[in-house]
Amino acid sequence: MTHRIVVLGAGYAGANAAGRLAKRLHPADTEITLVNADPEFVERVRMHQLAVGQDLKVRRLSDVFAGTGVQVRVARVAAVDVERGIVHTDGGDIAYDTLVYALGSAASGVPQHALDIAGKQSAQRLRARLDDLGAGAAVLVVGGGLTGIEAVTEIAEARPDLDVSLAVRGDLGSWLSEKAQAHLRQAFDRLGITVHEGVDVARVEKTCAITATGREIPAQVTVWTAGFAVHPIAAATTLEVSETGQIVVDDSMRSVSHPDVYAIGDAALAPGASGSPLRMSCASGVPTAHQAADAIVARLTGGQVPKNKIGYNGQCISLGRNDAVMQWVTPDDRPKPSALTGKAAVRLKEFICKAAAWSVSHPTVMLPSRRRRVGVASAVHETAL
């Protein structure tokens, strides 16, 4: 009997999981369906580049997975019935035996007059708005995390004729090492970016942002990067989810409440090897995808479930096209004193981004060629739990 595996979402996590499963499971025993609302893979870590007018490589999912055995369904997920094992989409229902939930996250709390860059369509809207701005217009980016820093530096570099500023609640780059913070401030000075520190933006108007203290910061365009939230579909099911709406999973990325469901990437409240929850990022998405895929293969074929070895090495932050910071971190994501900066960091950051996209574009390359047959699931060795 064919075992039906459905993967929801074709971002870094979902696409990697689908490809890895296709490479390691025999097509005579399994049917793998990848469901995604967009027909193309969206290189989300480059949305700030798309927003300032740079064109990104088009990767159609039908081309990426051609010949792999993965069936691509372009559809929008409406709901998941985890008791009956059915995914409801705008293109019809899909039944599953194993579900890999990778719907990811989106910008949250975006005010009416603000724009975001959490996805392709929103980045394109910002691109069109920036194109309409004349010299001297004010652009404000709200949020001092990785997305905010990359967005504001990209805009300032691409449009030096604009008055670009960043509003952060605390201090700029406060989570970074002293070396990285110093380089960050140098880059902001060089790009002419004004930093509003210790500022909480309460609301956004058409021509300004207003802080909690009533101060007005001029802005013809406000870009909101101050929060991300997971898709609400999981919270509407009987799956055990966290307060953030993320699916609670064990070391193998398996739902603690529904053993036929796995969650990966931003959608999962997942532990790393240290036991600490992984942060929402591409750096978490790909490893959790590999962990879940390998656990599924092991359980279906009577193999050994791999131990959770997920940890971090660094946080890479682009500062436009010509500068960057690579902050080295401990496996549990605490900053080390050392950091790579400048051109060397640019090259490393670009290598990492290209490698992540390459892993999606070549889903069945550089993995063991043997496709295992589905066997007795009870023979599995649960070494990870």
From TrEMBL:
<dbReference type="InterPro" id="IPR023753">
    <property type="entry name" value="FAD/NAD-binding_dom"/>
</dbReference>
<dbReference type="InterPro" id="IPR051169">
    <property type="entry name" value="NADH-Q_oxidoreductase"/>
</dbReference>
<protein>
    <submittedName>
        <fullName>FAD-dependent oxidoreductase</fullName>
    </submittedName>
</protein>
<keyword id="KW-0560">Oxidoreductase</keyword>
<keyword id="KW-0274">FAD</keyword>
<feature type="domain" description="FAD/NAD(P)-binding">
    <location>
        <begin position="4"/>
        <end position="287"/>
    </location>
</feature>
<dbReference type="InterPro" id="IPR036188">
    <property type="entry name" value="FAD/NAD-bd_sf"/>
</dbReference>
<comment type="similarity">
    <text>Belongs to the NADH dehydrogenase family.</text>
</comment>
<dbReference type="Pfam" id="PF07992">
    <property type="entry name" value="Pyr_redox_2"/>
</dbReference>
<keyword id="KW-0285">Flavoprotein</keyword>
